[in-house]
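[Solved] Which block belongs to which protein?

Original post:
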Amino acid sequence: MVMTPEDVNNVKFSKPRFGRRGYDEASVDAFLDGVMESLSSMQDRIDELERRLASRPPRL
């Protein structure tokens, strides 16, 4: 799944259990895993397009 800027902007993290401050660590880690997967997918696509472009003969 590729994330959109809206996905990143609209993410909501749950609060941790009573007695802890900040955000729920598991929720943040899961979100970051998704961001990493999305960025990796986009980088793979960029790399593929750059390889295809480099292998084409120059236009005159």
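(Second protein starts here: sequence line, then its structure tokens.)
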Amino acid sequence: MPSILPLYHGGNDRDGRQATVDASRLVESDEAASDKARQKAVVAAFTHAWEGYRRHAFGHDEIRPTTNATNDSWGGFGAVLIDGLDTMMLMGLDEYVAEARKVVQADDFAKDYSASFFETTIRYLGGLLAAYAASDDELYLTKAVQLGDALLPAFNSKTGLPYHEVNLQTGAAKNPSWNTDNCILSEIGSVQLEFKSLSHFTGDPKYAAAADSVMDVLWEKREQSVDGLYPVYISAETGEFRDAHVTMGALADSFYEYLLKQWLLTGKSEARYKAMYDASVDGMIKHLVARSQPSGRVFLGEYSGGQRVNVFDHLMCFVPGMLALGAANEPDAARSAAHMELAAELTETCYRLYADQPSGLAPDVISFNTASARPGTPDYRVKSGAYLLRPETLESLYIMYRLTGKSLYKEQAWEIFLAIEQHCRTPSAYSGVVDVRHAKPELNNSMQSFFLAETLKYLYLMFTPEAEAVPLDKFVFTTEAHPLPIFQTSAGG
């Protein structure tokens, strides 16, 4: 199994040979020196957040960063700790890794607790698998197996579509009353990387089989999709779509990301996922892509009732990174170039949402204007001004930088980091803000685990030398930014 860590912490090449040093590169360029200083600043930010968590909330899921209270919304297994574990490893924070390992060792994932199937999979299972991939420490795989076994009963619906929540001890699974029989597209279609990797690491096919059963249902329903775009609600009992609302944002987002990444994770051997991904991008371009007025910014809307709705949320900012990654693996040169051009335009839109605000932070939800408008008229109005420490724009900036080499993306990422430092840092950690339209926004007293797992990871990797970066042709990042190694499968897909 390829390990992430030698890429960062020296010693050997991948084939075990002692690494050599190119003497011509010993003189550090100004850009390299700047990157090193910026990377240290990101590590310092992670350290600050971890130290506050360690002082006030160690072993709990999260710290409330302005009051120092604890939050256990994810079962009390230590969400910040497990979700951020591979980030610590990449940063070489061995003392923190040792501390976290003790908590993982004591965790019992067969707890009498009704867990969110999706969130538990992407934060905990993904975190454990990435920690194992980075370290070869069998403890993390053992715990991943325990958790994977506890999650499997969620798939025990009539269709095999997983329920929203599952009791980790009893296996009782259900959808909540507010959502009746409905499954959410992003929740059922964004766990496949984790379950397939668990089967790959253990040699036990049952985990991948459960995840693939979901894709079997969706594959069979592809003719009922909206040109490759799937409605956000699906019946767990019949597999039928509950409405015709489609989006690349909340309730759907990572499903589309995982279509591409399932194909990549399995060594491009499962062709149906590439076909589904291609169809979804074609549908997205047909129904969702638009330009704002008067500035002509490219954005994604939603599609409901046969027409586009110009609502754009921050979660959609994963799309340019997805498009760029797809373009880099697309054999059709014209299609690849078109998708990369669209990725660049969407990346610029996402960055501008930060740069437009007095705080330098992006709002969570906006509504774009597409009607004719005079120059100087705002292109959008803010529907939710909150900034939740989200990673999606930084994720896309990172992928765009790695695939194009354009330093512009590094500079934009650094601007965002500085805004986070200025407005989100508390004496104990980091907090989201209530309204980015204020020059000094109020804090919301929340630091979700994805800040350490994703936001700071992508910032750290942005300023990592190319030769030491996690290679995008050997690893696939999950929706929670956990790098999992690509493997070959005999499936024809």
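Accepted answer:
You had them paired correctly. Confirming on the second one: The longest helix spans residues 30-57.
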